[in-house]
Specification:
It is built from 3 helices and 6 strands. By secondary structure, the chain is α+β, with helices and mostly antiparallel strands. The longest helix is centred in the N-terminal third of the chain and has 39 residues.
Length: 140
C-alpha cells in the first residue's frame, strides 16, 4: 500500500513536470518562430520585441547587453540581409524546454556564411540569452 502511494505520487509529479516542460517548449517555439519571421521580414522592431532590457547576446566579437546594444547588431544584419540576391537557409532547428538551437547558412553580396548557429534561452516568453557562432568570409 505504501509503495502504491509512492508510485502514484511519482507519476503525478512526473505528469506535472512534463506538462510544465511542454508549456515551456511551446512558448520557446513560438518565440523562435516570431524571431525568425521578424528577421525574415527585416522587422527590427519585431525582432527587438523578443528581447528585454536585460537580454544578453554572446558573439565571437563580444557581449551585447540590453535592447539598445542588440538593436545595433540587428540594424546591421537587416541592412545586409535586406539586399538583393541574398540566400538564407535554415539548416536545422531544435527546441527543448526553454532552449532553442538553430543552424543556418547564407550568401549576401558582402559575406558568405558557410555555417552559423544560434542558441536561445527563453525566459518568461522573451529571449534572455543568445549565443551566436559564425563561419563568415567577407567577399570584398
Amino acid at each position: 500500500m505504501h509503495y502504491q502511494k509512492l508510485i502514484s505520487g511519482t507519476v503525478l509529479a512526473l505528469t506535472l513536470v512534463t506538462g510544465g516542460a511542454q508549456a515551456d517548449q511551446t512558448t520557446t517555439k513560438a518565440v523562435l518562430d516570431h524571431h525568425l519571421a521578424s528577421f525574415g521580414a527585416g522587422d527590427v522592431k519585431g525582432i527587438l520585441a523578443d528581447y528585454t532590457k536585460n537580454s544578453v547576446i554572446v558573439l565571437p566579437s563580444g557581449v551585447l547587453h540590453g535592447k539598445a546594444e542588440i538593436k545595433g547588431l540587428f540594424d546591421g544584419f537587416v541592412k545586409e540581409f535586406g539586399k538583393k540576391n541574398v540566400v538564407f537557409k535554415l539548416t536545422g532547428s531544435t527546441v527543448t524546454d526553454d532552449v532553442a538551437y538553430i543552424t543556418w547558412s547564407a550568401e549576401t553580396p558582402d559575406n558568405s556564411y558557410s555555417f552559423a548557429s544560434d542558441t536561445f534561452v527563453i525566459k518568461n516568453g522573451k529571449i534572455a540569452y543568445q549565443t551566436v557562432a559564425l563561419v563568415v568570409t567577407a567577399k570584398k
